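User: Quick sanity check before I run a bigger batch. Here is a single chain. Can you write out its predicted 3D structure?
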Amino acid sequence: MVHPVDVHVGKKIREVRLLRGMTQVNVAEKLGLSFQQLQKYETGYNRVSASKMFEIAQLLDVEPAYFFEGLPRAGMPEREAMDERTAKAAQALSSITDEKIRAQIQSMIHELAGRQSLSA
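Assistant: Done. Predicted structure follows.
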């Protein structure tokens, strides 16, 4: 049976991989894995060992603790992982080098998100 923590860790691996613009094949090759094995990690079907998690964190330039961020605590709801479309949008936004333009776009996104939640 798949453990919820393994599913959460897998979602976080996928999320940061997408934010970095990397494919499963890219990451798997750099880690010496098959893309199928990485896919099993990302779905939580296979548990990631501590040493492999450390390698993944180094490759994706995050702290190992990143994979546990957002885990629900007793009585607290789990945060939704970022979908592929959102990850690609975040990657595109972070690639904008002009800080003023990036800040304006972020402000616009927050404004639109606020309006949407008010009308819902």
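The CA atoms of residues 12 and 95 lie 21 Å apart.

User: Great, the batch can go ahead then.
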